[in-house]
Amino acid sequence: MEITIRPYKSEDTQAILDIINYNILNSTALYDYNIRTFEQQKNILEEKISKQFPVIVAAVDGIAMGFGMYSEFRFREAYKFTVEHSVYVNESHHGKGIGKMLLQELIELAKKQKLHTMIAVIDSENQSSVEFHEKFGFKTVGIIKESGYKFDRWLHSVFMQLILDKK
Ligand SMILES: CC(C)(COP(=O)(O)OP(=O)(O)OC[C@H]1O[C@@H](n2cnc3c(N)ncnc32)[C@H](O)[C@@H]1OP(=O)(O)O)[C@@H](O)C(=O)NCCC(=O)NCCS
Asked: Ligand 1 atom closest to Cα of 121?
Protein backbone atom coordinates (compact mmCIF):
# COMPACT_ATOMS: atom_id res chain seq x y z
CA MET A 1 0.00 0.00 0.00
CA GLU A 2 1.59 3.28 -1.11
CA ILE A 3 0.33 6.37 0.74
CA THR A 4 1.12 9.80 -0.67
CA ILE A 5 0.19 13.08 0.99
CA ARG A 6 -0.35 15.75 -1.65
CA PRO A 7 -2.47 18.82 -2.41
CA TYR A 8 -6.10 18.27 -3.44
CA LYS A 9 -6.90 18.04 -7.16
CA SER A 10 -10.38 18.41 -8.61
CA GLU A 11 -10.35 14.69 -9.52
CA ASP A 12 -10.36 13.92 -5.75
CA THR A 13 -13.76 15.55 -5.21
CA GLN A 14 -15.86 12.40 -5.56
CA ALA A 15 -13.68 10.39 -3.17
CA ILE A 16 -13.86 13.22 -0.61
CA LEU A 17 -17.61 13.53 -1.10
CA ASP A 18 -18.01 9.79 -0.45
CA ILE A 19 -16.14 10.13 2.88
CA ILE A 20 -18.13 13.22 3.90
CA ASN A 21 -21.51 11.75 3.00
CA TYR A 22 -20.71 8.47 4.77
CA ASN A 23 -19.98 10.45 7.93
CA ILE A 24 -23.09 12.63 7.57
CA LEU A 25 -25.31 9.54 7.34
CA ASN A 26 -23.57 7.29 9.85
CA SER A 27 -21.82 9.41 12.46
CA THR A 28 -21.90 12.49 14.60
CA ALA A 29 -18.49 13.60 13.28
CA LEU A 30 -20.40 16.01 11.01
CA TYR A 31 -23.41 17.94 12.25
CA ASP A 32 -25.08 18.04 8.81
CA TYR A 33 -28.38 16.20 8.38
CA ASN A 34 -28.39 15.98 4.59
CA ILE A 35 -25.78 14.58 2.25
CA ARG A 36 -23.99 17.07 0.01
CA THR A 37 -23.98 17.20 -3.75
CA PHE A 38 -20.80 17.02 -5.79
CA GLU A 39 -21.12 20.73 -6.66
CA GLN A 40 -21.59 21.79 -3.03
CA GLN A 41 -18.53 19.86 -1.92
CA LYS A 42 -16.41 21.11 -4.82
CA ASN A 43 -17.36 24.71 -3.97
CA ILE A 44 -16.46 24.23 -0.29
CA LEU A 45 -13.00 22.89 -1.21
CA GLU A 46 -12.34 25.51 -3.88
CA GLU A 47 -13.37 28.33 -1.59
CA LYS A 48 -10.76 27.27 0.97
CA ILE A 49 -8.05 27.09 -1.66
CA SER A 50 -9.03 30.51 -3.04
CA LYS A 51 -8.37 31.93 0.45
CA GLN A 52 -4.86 30.37 0.51
CA PHE A 53 -5.86 27.64 2.95
CA PRO A 54 -4.55 24.12 2.30
CA VAL A 55 -6.62 21.12 1.29
CA ILE A 56 -4.55 17.94 1.28
CA VAL A 57 -5.34 14.34 0.49
CA ALA A 58 -3.85 10.99 1.37
CA ALA A 59 -3.82 9.02 -1.85
CA VAL A 60 -3.64 5.25 -1.48
CA ASP A 61 -2.53 3.72 -4.76
CA GLY A 62 -3.70 6.93 -6.41
CA ILE A 63 -7.18 7.18 -4.80
CA ALA A 64 -7.95 9.78 -2.09
CA MET A 65 -8.67 7.73 1.04
CA GLY A 66 -8.38 10.64 3.42
CA PHE A 67 -8.20 14.39 3.42
CA GLY A 68 -7.44 17.27 5.71
CA MET A 69 -7.86 21.01 5.63
CA TYR A 70 -8.11 24.13 7.73
CA SER A 71 -9.65 27.55 7.43
CA GLU A 72 -10.88 30.47 9.54
CA PHE A 73 -11.92 29.63 13.10
CA ARG A 74 -14.04 32.78 13.28
CA PHE A 75 -14.27 35.67 10.86
CA ARG A 76 -13.29 38.81 12.81
CA GLU A 77 -9.81 40.13 12.00
CA ALA A 78 -8.14 39.40 15.31
CA TYR A 79 -8.78 35.67 14.79
CA LYS A 80 -6.46 35.64 11.78
CA PHE A 81 -3.73 33.54 13.45
CA THR A 82 -6.24 30.85 14.50
CA VAL A 83 -7.58 28.09 12.26
CA GLU A 84 -10.04 25.25 12.65
CA HIS A 85 -9.02 22.04 10.91
CA SER A 86 -10.56 18.72 10.04
CA VAL A 87 -9.16 15.33 9.09
CA TYR A 88 -11.18 12.49 7.62
CA VAL A 89 -10.16 9.01 6.59
CA ASN A 90 -12.30 6.56 4.62
CA GLU A 91 -13.85 3.96 6.99
CA SER A 92 -12.16 1.17 5.05
CA HIS A 93 -8.72 2.62 5.90
CA HIS A 94 -9.03 3.63 9.55
CA GLY A 95 -6.20 2.67 11.88
CA LYS A 96 -3.48 2.50 9.22
CA GLY A 97 -1.69 5.71 10.13
CA ILE A 98 -3.30 7.85 7.41
CA GLY A 99 -4.94 10.29 9.83
CA LYS A 100 -1.60 10.80 11.55
CA MET A 101 0.15 11.61 8.27
CA LEU A 102 -2.55 14.13 7.35
CA LEU A 103 -2.61 15.91 10.71
CA GLN A 104 1.19 16.04 10.85
CA GLU A 105 1.23 17.70 7.44
CA LEU A 106 -1.50 20.20 8.41
CA ILE A 107 0.49 21.19 11.50
CA GLU A 108 3.61 21.73 9.36
CA LEU A 109 1.66 23.81 6.84
CA ALA A 110 0.11 25.92 9.60
CA LYS A 111 3.56 26.59 11.04
CA LYS A 112 4.83 27.61 7.60
CA GLN A 113 1.89 29.99 7.27
CA LYS A 114 2.96 31.51 10.62
CA LEU A 115 -0.33 30.63 12.26
CA HIS A 116 -0.45 30.57 16.04
CA THR A 117 -3.05 28.02 17.05
CA MET A 118 -5.18 25.21 15.63
CA ILE A 119 -8.62 24.23 16.91
CA ALA A 120 -10.48 20.96 16.41
CA VAL A 121 -14.20 20.87 17.14
CA ILE A 122 -15.08 17.24 17.84
CA ASP A 123 -18.33 15.62 18.85
CA SER A 124 -17.99 14.18 22.36
CA GLU A 125 -19.16 10.74 21.18
CA ASN A 126 -16.15 10.64 18.87
CA GLN A 127 -13.68 9.55 21.53
CA SER A 128 -11.27 8.03 19.00
CA SER A 129 -10.81 11.45 17.44
CA VAL A 130 -10.25 13.05 20.86
CA GLU A 131 -7.54 10.46 21.60
CA PHE A 132 -6.10 10.90 18.12
CA HIS A 133 -5.71 14.65 18.70
CA GLU A 134 -4.25 14.16 22.20
CA LYS A 135 -1.39 12.21 20.58
CA PHE A 136 -0.41 15.44 18.81
CA GLY A 137 -0.55 17.51 21.99
CA PHE A 138 -4.03 18.97 21.50
CA LYS A 139 -5.71 19.78 24.82
CA THR A 140 -9.42 19.94 25.54
CA VAL A 141 -10.12 23.58 26.35
CA GLY A 142 -13.88 23.55 26.46
CA ILE A 143 -17.03 21.54 25.91
CA ILE A 144 -20.13 23.24 24.57
CA LYS A 145 -22.92 21.09 25.91
CA GLU A 146 -26.03 20.32 23.86
CA SER A 147 -24.77 22.43 20.97
CA GLY A 148 -25.91 19.89 18.38
CA TYR A 149 -29.00 17.77 17.86
CA LYS A 150 -28.83 14.74 15.56
CA PHE A 151 -30.18 11.19 15.55
CA ASP A 152 -32.79 12.26 18.17
CA ARG A 153 -30.25 13.23 20.81
CA TRP A 154 -28.29 16.22 22.08
CA LEU A 155 -24.63 16.38 21.09
CA HIS A 156 -21.76 18.10 22.87
CA SER A 157 -18.90 19.81 21.02
CA VAL A 158 -15.40 19.33 22.41
CA PHE A 159 -13.00 22.15 21.55
CA MET A 160 -9.37 20.98 21.38
CA GLN A 161 -6.45 23.34 20.90
CA LEU A 162 -2.79 23.17 19.91
CA ILE A 163 -0.58 26.25 20.31
CA LEU A 164 1.95 26.11 17.47
CA ASP A 165 4.61 28.66 18.32
CA LYS A 166 5.11 28.59 22.07
CA LYS A 167 7.56 31.31 23.11
C1 LIG B 1 -9.99 10.34 13.59
C2 LIG B 1 -9.40 9.79 12.28
C3 LIG B 1 -9.09 10.94 11.35
C4 LIG B 1 -8.12 9.02 12.63
O5 LIG B 1 -7.54 8.58 11.42
P6 LIG B 1 -6.88 7.12 11.29
O7 LIG B 1 -6.16 7.05 10.00
O8 LIG B 1 -7.93 6.11 11.54
O9 LIG B 1 -5.88 7.16 12.52
P10 LIG B 1 -4.39 6.61 12.58
O11 LIG B 1 -4.35 5.22 12.07
O12 LIG B 1 -3.48 7.61 11.94
O13 LIG B 1 -4.19 6.61 14.14
C14 LIG B 1 -3.56 7.66 14.82
C15 LIG B 1 -3.77 7.49 16.31
O16 LIG B 1 -5.12 7.79 16.65
C17 LIG B 1 -5.59 6.85 17.59
N18 LIG B 1 -6.81 6.24 17.09
C19 LIG B 1 -7.20 6.08 15.82
N20 LIG B 1 -8.40 5.45 15.78
C21 LIG B 1 -8.72 5.19 17.06
C22 LIG B 1 -9.80 4.54 17.68
N23 LIG B 1 -10.82 4.03 16.97
N24 LIG B 1 -9.83 4.50 19.03
C25 LIG B 1 -8.82 5.03 19.77
N26 LIG B 1 -7.75 5.64 19.22
C27 LIG B 1 -7.71 5.71 17.90
C28 LIG B 1 -4.61 5.75 17.72
O29 LIG B 1 -4.20 5.78 19.07
C30 LIG B 1 -3.47 6.08 16.78
O31 LIG B 1 -2.27 6.14 17.43
P32 LIG B 1 -1.22 4.91 17.39
O33 LIG B 1 -0.83 4.76 15.96
O34 LIG B 1 -0.12 5.41 18.25
O35 LIG B 1 -1.94 3.74 17.91
C36 LIG B 1 -10.37 8.78 11.60
O37 LIG B 1 -10.71 7.78 12.53
C38 LIG B 1 -11.63 9.42 11.04
O39 LIG B 1 -11.66 9.80 9.88
N40 LIG B 1 -12.71 9.49 11.84
C41 LIG B 1 -13.97 10.04 11.38
C42 LIG B 1 -13.89 11.52 11.11
C43 LIG B 1 -13.42 12.28 12.29
O44 LIG B 1 -13.83 12.06 13.41
N45 LIG B 1 -12.54 13.26 12.05
C46 LIG B 1 -12.02 14.12 13.07
C47 LIG B 1 -12.81 15.39 13.16
S48 LIG B 1 -11.65 16.75 13.11
From this structure: 48
